[in-house]
Design brief:
The complex is a heterodimer of chains A (353) and B (288). Chain A folds into 2 domains: 23-130 and 259-321, D-Maltodextrin-Binding Protein, domain 2 (3-Layer(aba) Sandwich); 133-256 and 328-351, 3-Layer(aba) Sandwich (D-Maltodextrin-Binding Protein, domain 2). The longest helix of chain A is centred in the middle third of the chain and has 17 residues, at 187-203. Chain A is α/β, with parallel strands linked by helices and 353 residues long. Chain A has helices spanning 2-16, 36-46, 57-66, 83-89, 107-116, 166-175, 187-203, 215-223, 234-243, 272-282, 285-295, 310-319, 322-326, 338-351, and strands at residues 24-29, 49-54, 74-75, 92-93, 118-119, 122-123, 126-138, 160-162, 208-211, 229-233, 247-250, 257-263, 265-266, 298-299, 329-330. Chain B has one domain: MetI-like (MetI-like fold). Classes of the chains: A alpha/beta (353), B mainly alpha (288). The A-B interface holds A 58-59, 61-62, 65, 85, 87-90, 158, 165, 205, 208-211, 213, 224-226, 336, 339-340, 343-344, 347-348, 350-353 and B 43-44, 59, 61, 64-65, 127-129, 147, 149-150, 228, 232-234, 236, 241, 244-252.
Chain lengths: 353, 288
């Protein structure tokens, strides 16, 4: 009897003990970033299990804040949303660079992300996937739309859609000749910019068919022809381009807005080793290509674009010439408290008649 | 001994509902209240105060959105009652046996799928490239496509549609309990259809009407999906505002204050409604 109890106990301890060889990696990421194919390869190579939860920037922060950084082992917020979230809520732990194979990353992107995700002298983020938001336009029906403010033009009245979110405020500000990123650290100057953008977007309201919320919603609107010009992500435009050659992503004259999604470790994650294994695995050039083909965006992996499908490369080159790439406005880290100012502006635009 | 045993049984039976109330309703609300009275003064720094509530009353936008949500919900409730009453009366009084069951079932079938699917159904019908628009063009009634989505009327249709069942069910129950003899007696005494409806049917159905209205009002007020998906560019809804405070603004403090205000103000509207109709809550929720 006693031995039975003891052995049962032993079995339970072995089962529940965190073994270094096989862990469950709970990944909080974006749709398309962890394709089934890559998960299978990863599980076969390392023996870890992967559980994927898809999300977005705001929800990543909200979810981790609700649990003080628990419930997930690896999260993928954009690089500009890490330092302020860390400052306010303390939801991440620093990256241990000794466990990361830094040679897999494009050095300039690794350095830029490290700089932007540093809080209190420690680095909290590694770059994985980058892309832009700009304009997705039906070039036959709305060929004149080449900048954010062109969405307010009478020629496309009632056939325009954008989100009521911060990228819209920033895109319009650039298009109006302002420089919002330079005013990030000066609340008064930033508020002045927001006020001008608010007037512009309120005036533009009659032009808008609806404010879209999800990626599928805007693709649906564009595909059906109900909307001919919109602000959206580059991948969305390229996916639509595959179905309808008239629709594509256009880098706006004022500059596309560039984002980098990162790897960040939640503060109370339990499977750090699996998380580092995942990072080192998906940054391998051949795996990075699979992810690019699935997510539609390019990665920060060295030679990660080698095995990318030629169609995607063609679409990318058609949207971005060298000048457009140089003109990309990369999001700097968002200072804490900026979202509250932007939120009030967005609410007022939404409520305006 | 016997009393001890029955008392134990009483507490055992009471335990699940008490546990439910404590763990799922009272404790979260205490937590919500504590969050709502903490004001943010800097990163990871909070002070206690009622500043978040003051924001609601000083910023007209929030106050207006709440009023709009409440008024639209009241209108939706009234429309649901107007549409639901004849249906319920027909099912309860004018049909028998199998037809009755079938009709009742037909009211319920749409509710076997989720609210999201039902709302998407309306989007397919109303959108510019949708069923109604194409039908009107095929009949030659309009020249070009018509957009019927993204406005308050579409939202109202959605709200009424999602909540009509919760009006019909209590109404059928109360109308069922009305003795047909009373209506016949009314006619025998020379009453007209209108006067019988006013003097006999509606007074008898009042508890059902009020409880149906309370449920529909609460459902509309707390609805999130329908206003977001069907509503127009300026269709702010208070629950959507709470969501954006929590999720996109990271402002849990203000969001909690909004949540509390929604609770208080909706209770107030229900209270006023009960007073105006001369009903009491126990009368409405008790035996119908």
């Amino acid at each position: 009897m006693k031995t039975a109890v003891v052995s049962t106990f032993a079995v339970i301890t072995t089962l529940s003990a965190p073994s270094t060889s096989a862990e469950t990696l709970r990944l909080l990421t974006w749709g398309g970033y962890a394709p089934e194919e890559v998960i299978k390869l990863f599980e076969a190579e390392t023996g870890h299990n992967v559980e994927v939860t898809t999300s977005n920037n705001e929800e990543i922060i909200a979810k981790l804040r609700a649990t003080n950084g628990g419930g997930f082992d690896l999260a993928q917020p954009s690089q500009d949303r890490i330092a302020s979230a860390q400052e306010e809520f303390g939801i991440y732990k620093p990256i241990d660079m000794t466990k990361v194979d830094a040679d897999l990353f494009i050095p300039s992107m690794l350095a830029a992300t490290a700089e932007n995700t540093t809080y209190d002298g420690k680095v909290y983020g590694l770059p994985q996937i980058w892309g832009t938001s700009g304009l997705v336009v039906n070039t036959v029906e709305a060929g004149d739309v080449t900048d954010y403010t062109d969405l307010c033009d009478a020629s496309v009245a009632g056939k325009v859609s954008y989100r009521l979110k911060r990228p819209t405020l920033i895109g319009f500000a650039y298009s109006m000749g302002l420089d919002p990123f330079a005013a990030y650290d000066d609340p008064e100057a930033y508020q002045a910019i927001l006020d001008q953008v608010e007037t512009r977007l309120t005036d533009c309201k009659p032009n808008v068919k609806t404010y879209w919320d999800g990626g599928d919603e805007i693709k649906n609107l564009l595909r059906s022809g109900e909307v001919v010009a919109s602000m959206a992500w580059d991948t969305g435009g390229w996916q639509l381009n595959a179905d309808n050659p008239d629709i594509t992503f256009v880098a706006p004259e004022a500059g596309a807005l560039g984002w980098i999604d990162t790897f960040a470790l939640p503060a109370r994650g339990r499977a750090d080793d699996a998380a580092y294994d995942w990072i080192n695995f998906v940054m391998k050039p051949e795996i990075a290509s699979i992810i690019t083909n699935s997510a539609g965006n390019f990665t920060a992996a060295v030679s990660g674009d080698k095995a990318v499908s030629p169609d995607l490369k063609t679409r990318y080159q058609a949207s971005f010439d060298d000048e457009a790439i140089d003109n990309i406005k990369w999001y700097p880290p968002v200072p804490a408290g900026l979202e509250a100012m932007e939120g009030a502006t967005l609410d007022r635009i939404n409520a305006a008649k | 001994m016997v009393t001890d045993k029955s008392r134990l049984g009483f507490y055992l039976l009471l335990a699940p509902i008490l546990l439910w109330l404590m763990v799922l309703i009272i404790l979260p609300h205490i937590g919500l209240f504590i969050v709502s009275i903490s004001e943010k003064i800097g990163p990871r720094e909070y002070a206690t105060g009622f500043g978040n509530y003051a924001v609601f009353f000083t910023e007209p936008l929030y106050w207006n959105t709440f009023a709009r949500t409440a008024i639209m919900s009241i209108v939706a409730t009234a429309l649901t009652l107007l549409l639901g009453f004849p249906i319920a009366y027909y099912i309860a009084k004018l049909t028998r046996g199998r037809t009755k069951t079938t009709l009742f079932l037909m009211c319920m079938i749409p509710f076997w799928v989720s609210e999201l699917v039902r709302t998407f159904g309306w989007m397919i019908l109303l959108r510019e490239t949708g069923v109604f628009s194409n039908l009107l063009m095929a009949l030659g009634l309009v020249d070009g496509p018509v957009e019927m989505l993204y406005n308050d009327a579409a939202m109202m249709v959605g709200l009424v549609y999602t909540s009509i069942l919760f009006m019909v069910v209590p109404l059928v129950t109360t109308l069922d309990s009305l003795d047909d003899g009373l209506i016949e007696a009314g006619y025998d005494l020379g009453g007209t259809s209108t006067s019988i409806l006013r003097e006999i049917v509606i007074p008898h159905a009042m508890p059902g009407i009020v409880s149906g209205c309370i449920v529909v009002f609460m459902l509309s007020l707390g609805n999130y999906l329908t206003p977001i998906l069907l509503g127009g560019k300026d269709s702010l809804w208070f629950t959507g505002m709470i969501y954006s405070q929590f999720i996109t603004r990271f402002n849990w403090e203000l969001g909690s204050a909004f949540g509390f205000l929604l609770l208080v103000l909706s209770s107030l509207v229900v209270f006023i409604g009960l007073k105006l109709t001369g009903q009491s809550l126990s009368n409405t929720m008790g035996p119908t």
